[in-house]
Design goal:
Blueprint lengths: L3 H5 L3 H23 L6 H8 L3 H8 L2 H13 L12 H14 L5 H12 L4 H28 L8 H21 L6 H16 L6
Length: 206
């Protein structure tokens, strides 16, 4: 039978998970505070209280670290998205995304800053092309689901709509990071969601 200490001792998988979470948080802090150029394996290790060797062991390269940071920062950004694919889910996602921006954690803020820099950085471009395509695919599925359910007009193009929504959300996110004191997300979020609802719904042209 295991002793109380042995039962409470974290497993190897749990230790690895905690270490990776600490490293990603440290990486996100560096990006938010000093930009992607400050994101080195050595700097991340120092910030997290680990050696560079630990960071290299978990990620191997800066590129792999950035990839993991991009994936982690987008996971669960809008909580509570449980609606089936369709118009309701789409507007819920839009409103939730904007509403969450002022209180966005360090991981989410780092994603927006890295995304902006990806336009001129080869090492970031591929990672963020992949993440944006995953986001667009999710939105396209919502448009198709809404058309199938009879809630979204049949002449709405899922591809164009997804591109437009991602562009708007990312742009608003960056604006809020730069001007939190002058833009009110509690006004922006429901208004943007309602604009898309009116633009897409079946009776939009009636």
């Amino acid at each position: 039978m295991l002793s109380a200490d042995e039962r409470e001792r974290p497993t190897q998988a749990q230790r690895r998970e905690r270490t990776e979470a600490a490293l990603l948080h440290a990486a996100a802090e560096l990006v938010v505070e000093r930009g992607v150029r400050a994101l080195t394996l050595a700097a991340v290790g120092t910030r997290a209280g680990y050696s560079r060797g630990i960071v290299s062991h978990h990620y191997g390269s800066k590129q792999a670290l950035v990839d993991a940071l991009a994936r982690a920062s987008q996971t669960g950004f809008v909580p509570g998205v449980v609606h089936p694919a369709g118009l309701q889910r789409l507007v819920f996602l839009i409103e939730g995304y904007v509403a969450a921006l002022p209180g966005a954690d360090t991981l989410s803020r780092s994603f927006l800053l890295l995304w902006a820099e990806a336009a001129t950085s080869h090492e970031l471009a591929e990672v963020f092309r992949e993440r944006d395509e995953a986001f667009r695919a999710e939105l396209r599925a919502d448009v198709v689901g809404g058309i199938d359910a009879g809630d979204i007009r049949t002449d709405v193009d899922p591809v164009v709509t997804a591109v437009a929504i991602v562009g708007q959300l990312r742009g608003v996110g960056l604006q809020l990071l730069l001007a939190e004191d002058t833009l009110d997300p509690t006004v922006l979020a429901p208004e943007m969601a309602e604009q898309w609802r009116r633009a897409l719904r079946v009776d939009a042209r009636s």
